[in-house]
Design goal:
Blueprint lengths: L7 H7 L4 H13 L5 H9 L3 H17 L3 H14 L7 H22 L1
Helix pairs in contact: 3-4, 4-5, 5-6
């Protein structure tokens, strides 16, 4: 398990040391509609960049609440590119987002 992807202690601290709230948020992570790279790719292919950025923003916020700081930061970078706030190349950053998401999701699964 890549614990460095998830700062559980910080997340719990940010939630007022309420581990049951963390568990509830973790349950929501898995019960809500999951992040799907085909959905994001489709939005980008249709040049619906604002919708794509909002889609990334949703996963960014949820990851941040759960201590998934690497996913949060990676999603922020992709969101900035999609919103035109960064000239970084999209494709390598998307690939990184997908990889970090899969790895972080696995850590969240272990924490659940």
């Amino acid at each position: 398990m890549e614990q460095s992807l998830v700062d559980y202690k910080k997340a719990i601290s940010d939630l007022g040391n309420d581990s049951s709230l963390y568990k509830d948020l973790l349950d929501c992570w898995f019960s809500e509609v999951p992040f799907d790279k085909t959905v994001l790719n489709s939005l980008i292919e249709k040049n619906e960049l604002s919708e794509a950025a909002s889609y990334v923003h949703r996963i960014k916020g949820a990851a941040g609440s759960l201590g998934g700081l690497t996913l949060f930061q990676t999603a922020q970078k992709v969101e900035d590119i999609l919103r035109g706030r960064s000239d970084d190349p999209l494709t390598p950053n998307l690939n990184k987002l997908y990889s970090v998401y899969e790895n972080t999701n696995a850590v969240f699964r272990e924490l659940q």
